[in-house]
Amino acid sequence: MNTRTISGRLRGAAVLALLPLLALTGCGSGDTGGTAAVGAQASRVPTDDPVAAVRKVDSAAALLPADVREAGKLKVGSSIGFPPGAYYPNGTDKAAAGQDIDLADAVAKVLGVELERQDASFETILPALGSGKYDFGTGNFGVTAERLKSIDFVTYINDGQGFAVKQGNTELKGKVTDLTQLCGLTIGTGAGTTFEATLAAQKGVCAKAGRKPYDVKVYSENAATLTALQQGRIDVIMSTINGLRYQAAQPASQTAFLGEFHRLDVGFAFRKGSPLTKAFQAAVDELIKDGTYTRILKKWGTSASAIDASRINPPEHT
Predict the structure, then answer these.
(1) Higher pLDDT residue, 197 or 44?
(2) Measured in Å, how far apart are the chain's first and last C-alpha atoms?
(3) Is residue 30 over pLDDT 60?
(4) C-alpha distances in angstroms, 313 versus 101, 140, 267?
């Protein structure tokens, strides 16, 4: 941050002091560390509770395996990342909030089970499903052809990939529609995400265009990604559409959203062959039918990402 006056340096320091509040949930999902100051984020938490009125639907619950119905509990590995998906508005010792939290809780109520939520870093959840550590996972997991080889998905929203820059950026001024627009720049993104995979798969596009390649820096915590952007160590962030849009709406973040790059279905994640998928699909469809789904998305400002019906293992968007 190149400030030329003492007051400028103080303003810069003030912005950096706010970064843990804004980036504690950074957009790539998976930041489980840090504590938000009470009031700073708590004042922005929507107060309505569309989940409160949700009741058990016997026809959906009947699709659960008998042992699950008897136990009445499911273990969920949750990546508590950036609002509006999932975050800690009042610190990690208080309840998480967000769209993913509400949707998972609402599905559980439809199915008549309780959730045992365990925080986990984004990149560890999918591998842990096969071992039975979790019954399912949440973390804005996009449905990709590669993930479908080992993971089952039940979709609940349509989100995807986007880009953001620091306000005042002069190198990227409009929507990124082709990765060659990023040639010569440094991109920050989250570990184990579809963003990292996309950038790695397309790393040769700049050489083919006769341009300097882009560089990718991967961060395990989203707070570090936003801090790197503000300090000029990266030029652009690649992360979720809804997360980056939400972040750009917070003045202290000083970021600008560059629009959508690639849409992806997002779903609850399960081990391959899980017997839970049909029950979860039925529960999501019940929430869509009774209007709870619409109210949850409206609460978190993500109505543009609504789906008409849940799907099990849809093909990746091309």
Answers:
(1) 197
(2) 39
(3) no
(4) 21, 15, 9
Residue 45 has what pLDDT? Answer: 77
Q: Which residues pair with 312 in a beta bridge?
A: 154
28 has a pLDDT exceeding 90: no
Q: How far, CA to CA in Å, does 105 sit from each of 59, 142, 165, 203?
A: 18, 20, 34, 39
The answer to whether 140 and 29 have CB atoms below 8 angstroms apart is yes
Looking at residue 149, what DSSP letter applies?
G
Distant-in-sequence, close-in-space partners of 162: CB < 8 Å, separation ≥ 6: 238, 239, 240, 241, 244, 245, 257, 258, 259, 260, 261
Q: What is the average per-residue pLDDT within 263-269?
A: 96
Which of 129-133, 166-170, 172-176, 280-284 has the least mean pLDDT? 172-176
CB-CB contact of 50 with 299 (8 Å): yes
Q: What does the DSSP assignment read for 33-95?
A: ---PPTTTTGGGS----TTTT----HHHHTTS-HHHHHH-EEEEEE---STTTSB-TT-TTS-
- Cβ neighbours for 242, distance < 8 A, ≥ 6 positions apart: 84, 85, 99, 140, 159, 301, 302, 305
Residue type, 263: R
Kindly report whether the peptide bond that precedes residue 84 is cis, defined as omega within 30 degrees of 0. Answer: yes
Beta strands in the chain (DSSP E): 73-78, 114-119, 136-138, 151-166, 186-190, 215-219, 236-240, 255-271
Cα–Cα distance for residue pair 152/283, rounded to 1 Å: 16
> What tokens were used for 25?
């949930």
Supply φ then ψ for residue 309, to 5 degrees: -160, 150
Query: pTM to 2 decimals?
Result: 0.81
Query: Can you tell me which residue has the tokens 């089952």?
Result: 152
Other residues' Cβ atoms within 10 Å of the Cβ of residue 177: 12
User: Of 136, 50, 36, 52, whose CA–CA distance to 95 is shortest?
Assistant: 36
